[in-house]
Write a structure and sequence with these properties.
The chain has ten helices and six strands. The protein has 264 residues and is α/β, with parallel strands linked by helices. Strand 4 (131-138), helix 6 (147-150) and strand 5 form a beta-alpha-beta unit.
Length: 264
């Protein structure tokens, strides 16, 4: 979309000899840029699984709710894999290609490894002078030291920078660990598909909060840090899961985007 905008704004419409009145279409850079960052096996295969496009469910729903704004180039929606926001060169390339204007409000929705790398992405964009309005991390994964050896994820614990940070922990991902290591226990609510949570188990969910293992806790904690009862592979159900009353991560995201578009 960014490239299309640039082409429209620089196109020569007629020769100088043509003195008739001309209408020139001028498209401003998008006011909202939202990155949907997929996890392992989302945009490309991972250990024989995928691509599954789990985060695409949220992206499609978002675009269906903002059709007019998308068509008017007010919003730029970008789908990337966790590995595409890894490294300074990739971050700078994405910023130059899709954000364009530093006045734009940036939103990041990252799932699994995309939540871990997406949190780093928020910090790096902020340090480049961009405004990260909201970061949503969906069952972020990345604490495994083994995974950091062969996957394109950051080694350090993220230090997110965003005006609003929402973190959703997936209850079923943690239940699967209990069910795996304590098979003799019987829990009526443990209807958990272990295979679906295997990547989360292997990558180790990022526990954000008080810790006794010496792993650093981010200097800035989430504004909302909630547990949702969904499977690790799910994204849209997590976004629509009731948190406090009728509030959901989706309603907060939608309300923020609408507010930032007011007056356009």
């Amino acid at each position: 979309m960014a490239k299309e905008i640039l082409k429209i704004s620089t196109k020569t419409l007629s020769p100088a000899s043509n003195q008739k009145d001309k209408k020139i279409l001028v498209c401003k850079p998008p006011r909202i840029v939202i990155f949907f960052v997929g996890g392992a096996g989302d945009k490309r295969p991972f250990l024989g699984s995928g691509p599954n496009g789990n985060i695409v469910d949220v992206k499609k729903y978002f675009e269906s709710q903002f059709k007019r704004e998308m068509s008017d180039f007010l919003i730029n929606s970008v789908y990337v894999g966790y590995y595409e926001v890894h490294g300074s060169e990739n971050v700078q390339r994405l910023a130059a290609e899709f954000i364009i204007d530093k006045k734009a409000k940036v939103y990041i929705v990252g799932h699994s490894l995309g939540g871990w790398n997406g949190a780093h992405f928020s910090q790096k964009l902020s340090k480049l002078g961009y405004t990260v309005e909201m970061l949503i991390t969906l069952d972020p994964v990345g604490e495994s030291q083994v995974l950091k050896v062969f996957a394109d994820i950051y080694a350090a614990v993220p230090e997110p920078i965003a005006y609003i940070w929402i973190n959703l922990r997936y209850y079923q991902s943690y239940l699967s660990i209990i069910k795996k290591y304590y098979p003799g226990k019987k829990y009526d609510d443990m209807k958990v598909d272990l295979s679906a949570n295997a990547v989360a188990d292997a990558g180790i969910q990022w526990w954000i909060g008080p810790r006794l293992d010496g792993v650093k806790v981010p200097d800035r904690l989430p504004d909302l840090n909630k547990i949702v009862d969904v499977n690790h592979v799910e994204t849209l159900p997590a976004m629509q899961y009731p948190l406090d009353g009728k509030i959901t991560a989706w309603s907060i995201l939608k309300g923020s985007v609408e507010t930032n578009l007011e007056g356009e």
